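During data preparation, a discrete fold description was generated, and the record follows.
___
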Amino acid sequence: MDSQEVVIEAKGLTKKFDDFTAVDHIDFKVYKGECVGFLGPNGAGKTTIVRMMYCFLPPTEGELTVAGLSVHTQCREIKSMVGVAPQEDNLDPDFTVIKNLTVYARYFDIPKDVAVKRADEQLKFFQLEEKRDVSIMALSTGMKRRLIFARSLLNQPQILLLDEPTTGLDPQARHLVWDEVRHLKKQQVTIILTTHYMDEAEVLCDRILIVDRGKIIEEGTPAELVKKHIGEDVLELDYDEKLLPTLKEAFPDARFEKLGDRMQIFTDKPHGVFEGFLKEHPMQNVTLRKANIEDVFLKLTGRGLREE
């Protein structure tokens, strides 16, 4: 991201459903050409934030502008310039694959011949050419996800909202989607991404906002967040009560976390401190790995399961 042009801005953005506050007075900015990831547990408010961006849900309080346009008063203009791949499957089951795309293109006043050309290009890229004339009902879940992404690009948007775009995709299809996101970033398309795949966020996002219980609790680049909250490396090993005193003496400032019969040790000491310890204390079933965004996410939001 080179530009400092603000494309999306929220001030005090709030969404309530009766007595439940899904999004709680949040502020953020998204700049032109960057990919910003919204991460959070189920029910944290991520999808609600995205739905307010494309005017699917009206905010209860606060301001939200997209390309300088207010979601309160300029929804038609916003919808015309934004591409959306929603989390839910909202394809028309009565239409074929190609007709789903060409009918959708009419909402943007795209001429029919142009719509067919763009649709065929997207079907080719997302490897759906062979399904061009089949019913939506005949598609697998992964094919539907790819088609929803393809549809979001028909109006050649400069702002793209992707709500869990790779859920249900196999690894090959996920990487296909990643390639397209990278290509769009090079074209200075501004992208909002929600995902439960931490590796996806780490690979694609210039900046990450972690959302929990309707609030933004942390933000930064993936590297900044990992360095700030976790450090360089993580040591994973079998839990052994007899070994604990030795470990705590070697790493007095480390954070220890027990996970069933395994233990993780997090330290902000420089890369290599764990290797030195393991040379002096060889042991079985040890994993030494680089710290990552998933470690940050679990530290900040906890390991307990959340209901939708």
